[in-house]
Amino acid sequence: MARGRPGNARTEGSAMMTGILAATQPATTALGTGRSLLHRLFFFEGNSDLAPAVDWLFMFILWVCIVSFVVLMVPMGYWVWRYRRRPGVPAQRTPNHNTAIEVAMVVIPLIVVVFIFFWGFQGYLNSVVAKGRAEVINIEGYKWAWDATYANGAKPGDRVYLNYEPLEGDPSLPESGPWKLSRGNYAMPVIAVPEATPVQFVMTSRDVIHSFYIPDARIKMDVFPNRYTSLTFTPVTSKGPDQAGRVQPGADPSDPYPGRDHYIFCAEYCGDNHSEMLAVLRVMSDSDYSATLARWADVEKDLSLAELGAYVHQFSGCAQCHTVDGSRGTGPSWAPVKDAADGGGVGWGSVAPLADGGEALIDENYVRQSVRYPGAQIHRGYANQMPVYGPDKLSDRQLLGVIAYMRELAGKATPEDRAKPQTPQ
Questions:
Q1: Are residues 109 and 206 in the same domain?
Q2: Stronger pLDDT, 173 or 331, i.e. the higher one
Q3: Least confident of 48-52, 84-88, 102-106
Q4: Contact indicator for 394, 312 with CB cutoff of 8 Å
Q5: In Å, how far are 16, 322, 410 from 406, measured between CA atoms?
Q6: Which of 10, 49, 53 is closest to 232 using CA atoms?
Q7: Judging by beta carbons within 10 Å of its beta carbon (0-12, 13-18, 19+), is residue 415 exposed, middle or buried?
Q8: In this structure, are 265 and 408 located in the same domain?
């Protein structure tokens, strides 16, 4: 399988900069061979080619601070005690100038800070310049989820939860639902990457500023609307302990599945559910990665409309705001129950009270308008904050799937809603 597009070749810097950067490399390499007790206290083991340099730069800065504190505070404490004012002893005249000390206090910290700058700058270059033929994955952030698009058009087709807590529900619903979506237990998309292969994330935002942060990879980059930013790193191994939740819907939590999981966070406050804007980075072997992308690329073609709607609910960000168990979320529930908060109905076939005082029947036209033009009719009691899902974000068939799934939740699904697509002979 083709692996993305070639990364940009790194241009040569000035002779001085090249020399300073080269001087920092042996320190990074030498220090990266072991992990001190303090190192283990501060950091989980990283799973990235960038982790050793980042970790040891942090430890270097920490020890610079510790040594500086001791060098300054211990003599100062001694001098405060030694030259304290005593009864009957005249105060000594305070010295006000010493050229050697003043020069040393400027030059020595300057040398240390310049060394730290170029060590850090080398790490920055390594994190933003693609290494050879990198696997390019497009990332989009939006309130409040992460989405990915691969070179073959696939999108994340797996989700994991923080804990295993299925809800009692209609047995006619797809195996993947209904799942409890209470705070702290949102479905997290799985973003797969291959081990020992350079990966480049090309990122943008659909709405506000976010920040793509993978602590175990030691990478973080702000994500902006209307522009692209990028990060690159090489995952080291698919073997080892997981740092993220390992519960998949429709499967026993103890069932093994390939890869090593790490959390992805949003590190820039972006609204109500900022703390729940989570995803999972799954580092996989090359063969598992290729098989996973092939499976994700074909996941929708064999689903009925109702199953497709359930899939869209989980995998297109709908579950972040709209529940399927009748509980109140950021947006109205898709379940056909009475909303006790404002007395208005939610779910298929209900009459929704509108913010302008009117009413609207929740049918095909209402759902389509709410998806394509979400500000046209605002359900009373909810803010006008749903993003626009145009045809580029949600296809017409996916929109029909959402409608069919809402009918399924209301017990009003038609045979066409549950019919599997016919394979041409």
A1: no
A2: 331
A3: 84-88
A4: yes
A5: 64, 11, 6
A6: 49
A7: exposed
A8: no
At 368, which amino acid appears?
R
Is the domain of 245 the same as that of 170? yes
Query: What DSSP character marks residue 182?
Result: -
> Which among 5, 292, 327, 315 is positioned nearest to 135, based on CA atoms?
5
Collapsing DSSP to helix, strand or coil, 324 comes out as: coil
Assign residue 349 the CATH number of its domain.
Answer: 1.10.760.10
Residues 176 and 204 in one domain: yes
> CA 52 to CA 39: how far, in whole Å?
11
Angle subtended by helix axes 364-372 and 396-409, to nearest 10:
130
Mean pLDDT check: name the lowest of 272-281, 330-339, 385-394, 410-419: 330-339
Residue 221's domain spans which residues? 135-297
241 and 317 co-located in one domain:
no
Say yes or no: 198 and 328 in one domain.
no
Burial class for 246, CB neighbours closer than 10 Å (0-12, 13-18, 19+): middle
| Number of structural domains in the chain | 3
User: What pLDDT, on the 0 to 100 scale, is given for residue 135?
Assistant: 92
Q: Which residues pair with 266 in a beta bridge?
A: 212
Positive or negative torsion for Cα 99, 104, 105, 106: positive
pLDDT at 256: 62
Whether 108 and 173 share a structural domain? no
Q: Is the pTM of this model over 0.85?
A: no
Place of tokens 């033929």: 133
Q: Which residues contact 235 (CB under 8 A, 6 or more apart)?
A: 47, 48, 193, 194, 195, 196, 197, 199, 217, 283
For the CA atoms of 123, 125, 126, 131, the dihedral, rounded to the nearest 10 degrees, stands at -170
Distances (CA, A) of 344 to 88, 338, 360, 373, 386: 85, 6, 11, 21, 19
Per-residue pLDDT band for 413 (boundaries 50, 70, 90) equals confident
**What's the gap between Cα 53 and its chain centre?**
22
Give the 3-state secondary structure of 272-288.
CCHHHCCEEEEEECHHH
189 with 110, same domain: the answer is no
Using CA atoms, how far apart are residues 156 and 189, in angstroms rounded to an integer? 6
Q: Is residue 2 part of a domain?
A: no
DSSP code string of 154-168: -----EEBSS--BPP
List pLDDT tens digits, range 174-206.
444 433 443 345 678 899 999 999 999 999 998
Spatial strand order in the sheet of 219-223: 159-160, 188-194, 279-284, 260-266, 210-214, 219-223
The phi-psi region of residue 293 (left if phi > 0; otherwise alpha if psi is between -120 and 50; otherwise beta) is alpha
